[in-house]
Design goal:
Elements (H helix, E strand, L loop, with lengths): L2 E4 L4 E5 L10 H7 L4 E5 L7 H14 L5 E6 L2 H11 L4 E7 L10 H8 L1 H15 L1 H7 L3 H18 L3 H13 L2 H6 L5 E5 L10 H10 L4 E4 L7 H4 L1 H22 L1
Parallel strand pairs: 2-3, 2-4, 4-5, 5-6, 6-7
Antiparallel strand pairs: 1-3
Helix pairs in contact: 1-12, 2-3, 4-5, 4-8, 5-8
Length: 257
Amino acid sequence: MKFVEQGSGPSLVLVPGIPGPWQYVRPAVNALATSFHVLSFSLGSECSVESDVRRLEQELDRRRIEQAVVCGISFGGLVALRFAATRPNRTRALILASVPGPGTKLKPRHRMYASWPHVFGPLFIAETPIRLRREVKSALPSRSDRWRFHWSELRAFLTAGVSLRQIARRACLIEELDIVGDSGRVVAPTLVVTGEPALDWVIPVDDTVGYVRLIPGARHTVLEHTGHLGTLTRPAVFAAEVRRFVDGLLTENDEVA
């Protein structure tokens, strides 16, 4: 599992979403790297949350990083959640960005796609830009900015590829994981990040906000003018929210000391 590293500052691990390759979250990596020592990686082909958690810990050990901010985007948030739940001493803070929450269920057509990924997967990929068009237009009013965003995602697809079988398996995991149990074991300071409810057509914002009820002390922030893709369409705004949250924790610790 290849790790990429950028920037300097507090260590932050960024776990990508359901496609798997880290290249799909490159805009967030670049933005966060202005304030953090960012590590990111591609999800494993085993499609196992626990195996990704173990690899993440091994890479932190290899770099002698005792603690890191662990940030997960969409499906990657479930990996981040499990890491925080089972490795509390290694988790400086937890960031959950547009993550499937407790009770999230696959839509009937997505369940069909997952059952026959090589038959219906291409349809799922083809409909994605259409489904997200309103959100992207809201986040990026300039046509040139939208073209740059679409090109960056196309470049990720052409260079990193995507496995329809792995996407289908990860989608099914959303309903299999003990999200409530994992949430109950988290002790790290937690920030829940969502877009606006009317613009997230992937994961209902109310599902993600469920983590605020389950994780003691968790805070919630909304990225305006965007939905599920806010970490990629408005990466600088996302990075600023994460930086503000982590800086606040440092200030609180200094006051306690």
